Amino acid sequence: MMKLRLFTPGPTMVSPEALLAMAQPLDHHRTAGFRETLKECVDLLAYVIGTKTRPLVLTGSGTQAMESAIIGCCKKDAQTLVCHAGKFGERWRDILKVYGIPHIEYQQDYGVGFKAAAVAAKFKENPGIKSVIFVHSETSACSISEAEGIAKVCRDNDALCLVDGITAIGTIPFKMDEWGIDIAVTGSQKALMLPPGLGICAVSDRAWKVIDSHQAPAYYNDLKKYRKSMEGNDTPYTPNNQMVSGLKYTLTQIKEQGIENVWARTALLAKGTRAAVVALGLKVFAKDPVDSVTGVLLPDSVDEGKLRKTLRSKYGIHCAGGQGHLKGKIIRLNHMGYVDAVDTVGAIAALEWALAEQGYKFEMGAGTGAFGKVIAAG
Asked: Does 304 share its domain with 360?
C-alpha cells in the first residue's frame, strides 16, 4: 500500500481534487460551457504568466508549443541566436535545424545559466540576429538564466525574445510584460499540477507582427489559427476538454494562494533542500542553481541507478536522474507544483536511508535537520 510521490521535474504530482475535476462526465467541446471554461483558464493563465495578452492553449506538450513559436517567429531570412546549456536548449536548436532556419549557437556547460551581458556581446558579434531562444529554468542541468536581463537586451537590439518557461512559469518569478518577453511557453505537467497534455503559448504584439508577416511551415501548429479561434474562446482543433477542466481548478488554486506566495514557497523548499544536500556532505550541482529543481552530485561510491531504484521501490520516492553526460552522476529533486515541506523532508529522509544502504558515511538525520532549520526560519 505504498504511496508513490513524484519528485521528478515533470510530470509532477497531481492532487486528488484536480484528478476529480478531470473525472467529471465528458461533455462535447463545441459548447458554450467549454468556451466559458476555456475563457476562465486564459484569464488565469495571463495572471500566472504576467501578461495582458491572451495565452493560447494547445492540445499537446510544451515542446509542441515551443516548436509552434519557433517556426512562427524565426524566419528563414533572419538569424536566430539559440542558447543551450542543457537538453532542452539543445532541443530548440534541433528544431531550428529540422526546419532549416538560420541560427547561431551559443553553448555553455551544463549547470551554467546565460547572462544578459554575454548575450549582448553576441549581438555585437552578429548584428543580424532577429530572435533569441533560451531556457529560463533548464531542469536538465538544474540552472537558471537571466530572463529579465536577456529580454531587455533583445528589446535594445530590436530582436524577439523567445523563452522556454516550461519549468519557470508558476514556479519562480516570471513577468512577461514587465520584462518585455515576446514568447512565453509552458506545459501542463510542471507547475500547473496536471498530467501531460496541454501546451501554453503567450505571444506579444511584437511577436504577432513577425508571425503575421509570413506563413510558417505548419498546419496543426499554426499559431494564427489558435489566435483566430481564441477570439471566440475556442480552439481550431479538438481540445483535451477534460484537461482544460483540470486546468481551471489548478489555476484557481494558484490565484487564491497568490503567485508571489507560490514563488516564495518554491524558493524556500529549494533553499532547504540545498542546505540538506550540503549537510550530507554532498554537492549541489549547477553553478547557477534554479529553485524549480535541485541537482545532487553523487560521489563515485554511490550507484545512481541503484539509489533511485531503492528510493522508488522501498520508499515511494521517484526522483529523476541526470541527462546527457550527467546520466549516472546526479539525481534531481523537484520543487514545483503540488509538493510541500512535509513531502520534501520525507524525500530527504528517504535519500538518507538509501545512501546508508550503499555504505555512504554521514551523520543520520543531518539532511532532514538542516532542511527543518531552513523551513522553521521561513
From this structure: yes
Q: Within this chain, do residues 272 and 366 fall inside the same structural domain, yes or no?
A: yes
Cβ contacts of 230 within 8 Å, gap of 6 or more: 42, 54, 56
One domain, residues 218 and 265: no
How many domains in the chain?
2
Where would I find the beta strands (DSSP E) of 302-364?
317-318, 320-321, 330-334
CATH code of 183's domain: 3.40.640.10
Residues 362, 343 share a domain: yes
pLDDT of residue 2: 82
Report CA torsion sign: 243, 246, 252, 257.
negative
Residues 267 and 240 in one domain: no
Q: Which three cell numbers stand for residue 118?
A: 554575454
Give the burial class of 215: count Cβ atoms within 10 A of its Cβ; 0-12 exposed, 13-18 middle, 19 or more buried: exposed
Instruction: Note whether 71 and 214 are same-domain residues.
Output: yes
CA distances from 21 to 16, 242, 247, 331 (A): 9, 8, 9, 32
Is the CB of residue 205 less than 8 Å from the CB of residue 48? Answer: no
125 and 215 fall within a common domain: yes
Q: What stretch of H or E contains 116? A: helix 116-125
Residues 73-128 have pLDDT tens digits of: 999 999 999 999 999 999 999 999 999 999 999 999 999 999 999 999 999 999 99
Q: Does 9 sit behind a cis peptide bond, omega within 30 degrees of 0 on the bond before it?
A: no
pTM, two decimal places: 0.96
Same domain, 210 and 102: yes
Tens-place pLDDT, residues 276-320? 999 999 999 999 999 999 999 999 999 999 999 999 999 999 999
Region 170-184: mean pLDDT is 98
Residue 283's domain spans which residues? Answer: 5-10+258-377
CA distance 117 to 152: 10
SS (H, E, C) 173-241: CCCHHHHCCCEEEEECCCCCCCCCCEEEEEECHHHHHHHHCCCCCCCCCCHHHHHHHHCCCCCCCCCCH
